[in-house]
Design a protein that fits this description.
Chain lengths: 341, 180
């Protein structure tokens, strides 16, 4: 053996450590490379990047970026508008489109649900294959050593069995099981890192407490659970004090609830309701509901038929939705009777 | 048990499970099409009519709202128009009837006016100049019809042309569901 080859030869333990260092270094570099921030993009670059991630919903195999179909143009215009607003991240804009057209428009599959298999399965397969190769390689080495007659006896003795076949399969099964678990774990991590995120997933923020969602919940609670509805409208007003719908319906529900209490509470509720409805009308004079409720409250709780009649006329001129129109039309005759019409 | 036999049994089990799923599952015979928006609050829509009147969808809460995405050169849109006219007239005649709107898809105001003058339908026609409303609802091809309930939730999406009585039947079903 030459001096150089002696210097290069390593003990098995040192060789394993060297391989482990190489493996860790590779993984660290891969993670660093994948997660590296390439710096700010221009708006046009962002639009291009986003539209390359979305499939044209009416074409075969074309992204919104390349398609000239009208649906693709509309999506491109929407992406440009949202990029221009500067509020949403790229992931959120892609998720907005996917929320409307469905997951099939995502050219980058999602990292959750059945689509996550696209990310997980290749990783699992790769890890399992590497595990199987390692076992087969080691078995080959042992076989060679056995043929050489150097360690065949102790190797057989270490299995603790004499029938051979089950003992030979055991390392393979154990390795497969470990590789499967590791592969699934790594695959899930890859899916989470690389898959398209949805609005409710952490990396892109949540919409569950958005104003629209709170208003929708309040609307649903309204008829049966007035207290919850008032609370929900109150939460909307905490973040958006000028929300006309929340101002109007919170005031209306407070007045309806107060009717079952004593005079002083009703008086307080009446004053606050008139103020809130007046504020809503001031913010959006075309909003019919506030004007209609003002007419109803002024008549029912304030006893002022003349003012009520004026407000109800304005309400009808603003074309209220069917539910509110029904309330107003049923009250109209009473107001007219009170005025002696 | 030999591994080959275990494998064969596993494959057989999976095949049986697939057959069972196919046997017990219902065919997709509904008029309504799938959309991630079904059961969700409708997108916020703010636009103008082709007569320059403002329109805000959130202000129509309390009414059933029907959107029909339309283009005057689209053949199925033209074919379904008489059914839409009948539906809109029926809804207008009933108390608490649904509000019907055309959402103009990739078409000029003048072409829309000409079409409605020739074919009837005096409901409001909403502009969607850059396709924002179509994208908000995930509409890729016209015609499409959407129904939004009085609480502002999307309840139904119909792809393609409707025929006589389809919208009436769907509205009746949705109203019944809302009242139960």
């Amino acid at each position: 053996m030459t001096t150089a080859s002696r210097r290069m030869s390593l003990t098995p333990a040192a060789r394993r450590i060297a391989w482990a260092v190489v493996l860790v270094a590779t993984l660290v570099l891969l993670v660093f490379g994948a997660g590296r921030n390439t710096g700010p993009l221009t708006q046009q670059e962002r639009i291009d990047v986003i539209t390359k991630r979305i499939a044209c919903p009416t074409c075969d195999g074309e992204s919104v970026f390349v398609s000239r179909a009208s649906a693709a143009q509309a999506i491109r215009a929407e992406v440009a508008r949202q990029v221009g607003d500067g509020v949403k991240t790229d992931d959120e804009i892609v998720a907005y489109v996917a929320d409307r057209f469905g997951g099939q428009v995502l050219l980058v599959p999602r990292g959750s649900g059945i689509e996550a298999l696209v990310w997980v399965l290749p990783v699992v397969l790769a890890v399992v294959l590497v595990g199987v190769l390692i076992v087969l390689f080691r078995r080959g080495n042992r076989g060679n050593r056995g043929i050489d007659g150097e360690s065949g006896g102790p190797e057989m003795a270490s299995t603790g069995t004499t029938d051979g076949a089950p003992a030979n399969r055991r390392p393979l099964v154990i390795t497969l099981a470990i590789a499967l678990v590791v592969g699934i774990g790594v695959g899930v991590l890859v899916a989470r890192q690389s898959g398209q995120r949805l609005p409710l997933q952490t990396a892109t923020g949540g919409i569950e407490d958005s104003t629209a969602s709170l208003l929708a919940q309040a609307r649903l609670a309204g008829p049966t659970d007035v207290k919850s509805a008032i609370d929900l409208y109150g939460r909307v007003l905490e973040t958006d004090p000028d929300n006309v719908e929340a101002l109007t319906y919170r005031a209306w529900l407070i007045m309806l609830s107060a009717r079952q209490f004593d005079e002083s509470l009703r008086t307080q509720a009446y004053a606050s309701t008139i103020t809130a409805l007046g504020r809503a009308i001031e913010l959006d004079p075309a909003y019919p509901d506030a004007m209609c409720f003002l007419g109803i409250v002024v008549f029912r709780d304030g006893g002022d038929a003349a003012s009520a009649s004026e407000f109800l006329d304005k309400c009808i001129a603003r074309q209220p939705p069917a539910e509110v129109r029904g309330l107003v039309e049923s009250l109209r005759a009473e107001v007219d009777a009170a005025l002696g019409k | 048990m030999k591994p080959a036999r275990i494998g064969a049994l596993a494959v057989g089990f999976v095949m049986l499970a697939l057959v069972a799923v196919l046997v017990v599952s219902d065919g997709d015979t509904d008029v309504g099409a799938r959309s991630p928006l079904l059961g969700q609050p409708a997108p916020a829509i703010e636009t103008t009519t082709i007569d320059d009147q403002p329109f805000t969808l959130a202000r129509r809460k309390g009414s059933w709202v029907v959107f029909n995405f339309f283009n005057s050169t689209c053949v199925p849109c033209i074919a379904e128009h008489p059914s839409l006219v009948k539906f809109a007239e029926g809804e207008r005649a009933r108390p608490g009837g649904a509000e019907f709107y055309t959402v103009v898809n990739d078409d000029a105001d003048a072409a829309i006016r000409d079409f409605f003058v020739a074919n009837g339908g005096d409901w409001s026609k909403l502009r969607d100049t850059d396709g924002a409303i179509a994208v908000a609802f995930g509409v890729a091809k016209v015609p499409e019809t959407w129904i939004i309930d009085p609480n502002g939730f999307v309840r139904l999406r119909i792809l393609g042309a409707v025929t006589d009585g389809v919208l009436e039947a769907q509205m009746a079903r949705l109203r019944e569901g809302a009242n139960s």
